[in-house]
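Morning run. Coffee first, then this:
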Amino acid sequence: MSTTLVTQSNLADKKWYLIDAKGKILGRLAVEIANILRGRTKPSYTPHCDTGDYVVVVNAEHVKVTGHKETDKTYAAYSGFQRGLHVRTLEEVRAKKPEFIIMNAVRGMLPKNRLARQMLKKLRVCVGENHPYAAQSPIVWGK
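And here it is:
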């Protein structure tokens, strides 16, 4: 009996999953999303192929963090110019662009290569309950 590896030619159809982030802890949610994007929830998981599914996350502004991370956790962006370092706390980012919090956490959980950048394009994060992906009929993911 031989092991069959998944290649790009024999990939199965991609499914769409819907995850509600309301009341969920950020790190644990990011691990679940990263596993779905990589395809680790499937029996046909192959590390060198994109076997994962699409993920739609709603209620991104209601994700929880533990401890003092709301005021202590910082996000830094550097423009390349002198004094071009912009440091923002989690509560500032949550007020302006809450979808960035989940995208950044999931990006940190994926491997650092071209395949991970391709997987991250399958993640859609929406603010609020409504999302424009109803035509794909996403399956509600909940454990």
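Residues 26-38 form the longest helix (13 residues). Good start to the day.
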